[in-house]
Design goal:
7 strands; 3 domains; binds guanosine-5'-diphosphate; Single alpha-helices involved in coiled-coils or other helix-helix interfaces; about 55% helix; alpha/beta; Rossmann fold; seven-stranded parallel β-sheet
Length: about 325
């Protein structure tokens, strides 16, 4: 990862360039927020504060689905459609596997060839960082930078595994599940929690031989969503399940219409701002908690204390609760 330029304070140097929509400045700013170095963190915090003045707001859309369901094909086709409507689109990725493979499999430029050549599009792959928490922080900060740079839509793509979906849902306005055509039995395998997070389910590959199965799957998911609940943040008829074909770029305009209908309704009803406010508070608290833990982990005395108490607990000499109480007392908590 290239180091950020330290010759000047990026907060003062990069901010106006980002606000002017300069892509190179945006790319450099994202590199800065990806850095774990303490001095870079301080610069990033100042930069994020400096660009906040723009007050610009993109529609943040989370997109999740298992490998092979067609996420990159969808992002490319959907992104191209948005660009053709005169919108500026940024694509970010949260990729929990990149830590293991050492490289990114999502948001890869070679997988979105047309979109990556569009001047109105900005694609940034997931960084290969060990911790999902670190990737989450970088992504949410990158979203803020993209908004300040004037992007209308920020798409955040993630693989449908583990905690990454929750993380993405917690930083977006709309969370979309991309599904493949399936038999009724497979439908049962979708975790209830993930269904509950979904603001819309898009069944991809509704084309050719797969179309009848896709249409049945849409009906199955629509039924399942209907049974699940009517949430206060949903107008009548939402959440919806719709068919799309990323390959043939079919159903994408309809899906976009429905996303806008949902977002507009939530804006009018106050749900949109409330969700953002809750998210901002959540991320603030998470940042403080992680910062505290990092500071504790860096203190040699506390590390020694934790090791000693952890050993005592593991050896059965001290009960976990008693050891925790002793540790907290030593920390002055
Ligand atoms: P990802 O792993 O979720 O990003 O999936 P990809 O976008 O790489 O697509 C996986 C495979 O599904 C590729 O062979 C695509 O060509 C194919 N695919 C993606 N979208 C569609 C679609 O709408 N229809 C059909 N028939 N195939 C698709």
């Amino acid at each position: 990862m290239p180091a950020a330029d330290l010759s000047t304070d990026p907060a003062t140097e990069l901010a106006p360039r980002i606000l002017a929509g300069e892509r190179r400045a945006l790319a450099r700013a994202i590199t800065l927020v990806e850095s774990g170095r303490a001095d870079h963190r301080a610069q990033a915090a100042r930069l994020l504060d400096a660009v906040k003045v723009s007050g610009r707001q993109a529609l943040r859309i989370g997109l999740s689905g298992t490998p092979g369901v067609g996420k990159s094909t969808f992002v490319e086709a959907f992104g191209m459609m948005l660009v053709s409507q005169g919108l500026k689109v940024a694509v970010l990725a949260v990729d929990p596997s990149s830590a293991r493979s050492g490289g990114s499999i999502l948001g890869d430029k070679t997988r979105m060839e047309r979109l990556s050549r569009e001047p109105a599009a900005f694609i940034r792959p997931s960084p290969s960082q060990a911790q999902l928490g670190g990737v989450a922080r970088r992504t949410r900060e990158a979203v803020s930078l993209c908004e300040a740079a004037g992007f209308d839509v920020v798409l955040i793509e993630t693989v449908g595994v583990g905690q990454s979906e929750t993380l993405v849902a917690e930083m977006t306005d709309l969370f979309i599940l991309l599904m493949a055509p399936a038999g009724g039995d497979e439908l049962q395998g979708v975790k209830r929690g993930i269904m509950e997070m979904a603001d819309m389910i898009l069944v991809n590959k509704a084309d050719g031989d797969l179309k009848p199965a896709a249409m049945r799957t849409v009906a199955d998911y629509a039924g399942a969503l209907h049974l699940l609940r009517r949430r206060p943040q949903d107008p009548d008829g939402f959440p919806k399940a719709l068919p799309v074909s990323a390959l043939e770029a079919a159903g994408l305009a309809k899906a976009w219409d429905e996303m806008r209908t949902l977002a507009d309704w939530r804006r009018a009803e106050g749900h949109f701002d409330r969700r953002r406010a809750e998210q901002a508070r959540h991320w603030f608290e998470t940042e403080v908690r992680e910062g505290l833990l990092a500071r504790l982990g860096a203190d040699p005395e506390i590390k020694a204390l934790m090791a000693r108490l952890g050993g005592a607990v593991a050896a059965g000499e001290t009960a976990p609760a008693a050891a925790a109480a002793e540790a907290l007392a030593a920390l002055g908590a």
